[in-house]
Amino acid sequence: MHIKMLAKIIPLIAALGLLPTVLAYPAQVSPGLATVSNGAALKWYSTNFDKGGPAPEKAASFYNCHGTELSDFPSFEEWISFDDMWKINEPILEAVNPEYLDLIPTIREKIELVSADSQVDARLILAVIMEESTGNLNVPCTQGSMTNCGLMQAAGGSVSFNPKDPENSIEQMIRDGVQGVGAAPGLAGYLNGVSWINNGQFGNPYLAAHIYNAGCASGGDNLAVVEGSGPKSKVYASDISSRLTGWNGERAGCLASAQCPGQLRQASDC
């Protein structure tokens, strides 16, 4: 689960009285209002939902073995269109939300809304949603030193689905993951860059995804590293890149990833 390493070091930093200067939001940025301002990151943003690279013929068995260095990951032009990506993932969204089929279009609507507000590409938002929760509105919170809730399993303070207020809660779950909560930034913040990580590649969506999951980037440009107790951090960026180029998250693609150079994962992990 994302920011596990961050969750472990927060108590230590707080005990030293350093938390406000090390991990706090900049004064001008509030959770839920973060917008991408990094010029490098804005090159990975588009509002053209029908433009993109070719989608794979078999989304279930497809896996993109690019990586593990940042320079090896797919280019922005290789991302399939948001329309194609939605078509690939819509059956999964319907399968995991049988009692809320009428809300599936709302998920798309809110992704597009938060994307426009934050300048984070809608495809990256959808990829993280599917990776974190498969789009299950009723996904449980992950309990640990920090509680991660919602469609994007965002940091502590994130909300869960409220069936009594479905549209607003769907929007808030997405905002939590994209624009951040009090405990940590979201994707927009990680695209802009954070003070506790020294990396000259801020603005790269694969690095942002890795930090979203792990809370750190100890490998520099190499994203195929295990961060702390979170083994999924080794494959997270590669999974996201594969979703952005057409994988639907099914087991066949996971098994294909076990054949990628660099031993991203074992077949037994699928």
From TrEMBL:
Residues 1-24 form the signal peptide. Keywords: Signal. The keyword Signal applies. This is Transglycosylase SLT domain-containing protein. The lineage of its organism: Eukaryota, Fungi, Dikarya, Ascomycota, Pezizomycotina.
